[in-house]
Design a protein that fits this description.
By secondary structure, the protein is mostly helical. It has a domain of 43 residues. Helices cover 73% and strands 0% of the residues.
Length: 77
């Protein structure tokens, strides 16, 4: 019986070691791909719209949506 338990423990540690190695290789591959993408495809500077520019949405509509969301959150806590 002791031999069977030791075989089971050895198999458990071998399986856990394989999973640990695979996850470590996966993390390494993801980090490598991330650095390659950042190196060869850098983000272009974002030329966003400034908040002072009107987005074409009526202020009354924004106020109504804000009030509706506030009421919904108050009733569904």
């Amino acid at each position: 019986m002791a031999e069977l338990m030791s075989s089971g423990i050895e198999l458990m540690f071998a399986g856990m070691g394989i999973v640990f190695l695979f996850l470590g290789m996966l993390v390494g591959a993801i980090n490598l791909m991330s650095s390659l993408v950042q190196r060869f495809f850098p983000e272009a500077p974002v030329m966003g719209v400034s908040p002072s520019v009107s987005s074409g949405i009526d202020k009354n509509v924004v106020a109504a949506i804000t009030a509706a969301v506030h009421q919904y959150r108050r009733e569904h806590k």
